[in-house]
Amino acid sequence: MLKIAVVLFWASIALFAQNILSPVLQIEVNGTAKDLTLHKNHLVIGTDTGRLQVYDYISKKFVKEVKIPDIKDFTGETVPAAVFSADYCEGRYLLLSDSGEGGYSNLWLHENNQTTQLISPKDKKPLIKARFVDKDHIMLSYLSNEAALYEISSKKELYREQLTPSKFSDFALNEDHTKAAFGCESGVISVIDVKNGKLIKNLEGINKDNVYKVDIKKDIVVGAGQDRRGSIYNLKTGKGDFIQGSFLIYATALSPDADNVAFSMDEQNNISVYKVATKEKIATLHGQKSTLNAIVFKDETTLFSASDDSTVLMWKLN
User: Fold this and answer.
1) Domains plus CATH for the chain?
2) Model-level pTM?
3) Residue 167 to residue 146: CA distance in whole angstroms
C-alpha cells in the first residue's frame, strides 16, 4: 500500500509540474468563430453566420453585432456569408467575407451604425485576410500570396506585391503595424515593409510545408506548420529553430513582449505555451474541443483562443 501511495504521489507531482490549465471564461458566439482580434477589453469575432460580434470580457457581455447580407452559394441557395476577417480601428469595424461568386470576396466597413461595401465581386479580388494598418489603410492578402495596401479614402490599392509563387496561408502585423509577416504553403515566411510592400527578409529552412498561421512581435516571427513544427525566427539575424509538435500545428501567437509563444501542438486541440528564449514549456491549455482557428494574447499571461465551433475561451497562465 505504501508503494502504491508513493507512486500516486509522484504521479500527482508530475501532473502538477506539467501545469495543465483550464479556461477561466467560455464565450458562446453565433456560429463558428472564424477570426478573432483583441482591442483593449473587447474581442472582435468573425463568424460563419455573417456576423461580427464584439464581446466585452470585463463585463462578460456582447456589446455590438454587425450582420452582413446573405449570399447565394453555387447551388443558388441563400446562405450566410462567412466572415473570414474581423478587425477594429478608431470607431471603424472591418469585415472580409465570402461573396459566393467565383471565389471573390466582399470587404465591408462599418462605422456610425452604417455598413459600406468597399470591395465586391465586380472587383474580382480573391482576398483571404484583411487587417487595419490605421484608420484609412488596410493590409490585404490574396490567395496568390500577394500583399496589398488598400486606402479607404481613395478606394485604391497603393501597391500590390507578389511575395512567393506559393499559395497564401496567413499574415500578421507587428505591434506598431510597420511590418507584416506572410506565410505560404512552401514554408517560407516573408516579412515586408507595410509602407511600401518591399521585402525585408524571407525566413526559410525550418518549415518544410504549409505554414498555417504566423505572428510577429519585437522582431520575433513564429509559424504554425503542417509539418508539425512550430518555427521561431529572429528577424534581425534570419536564424531560426523549432519546437516539435505531435500533430499538425494549426495556430500560433506571440505575447506582446514576445516572451511567450503559444502553439496548438497535438490532436486533442491543446494549446502549449513556451518561453521563446529557452523553448521551455510553461503550460498546457486544455479545453478547446475543435481545431484552433485563432489565438491572441492580451498580455504576457492572458490569452484567448477560437476554434472551429461556437466557443471562444479565455486563459490565465498564473
Assistant:
1) 25-125 (2.40.10.480), 166-317 (2.130.10.10)
2) 0.93
3) 9
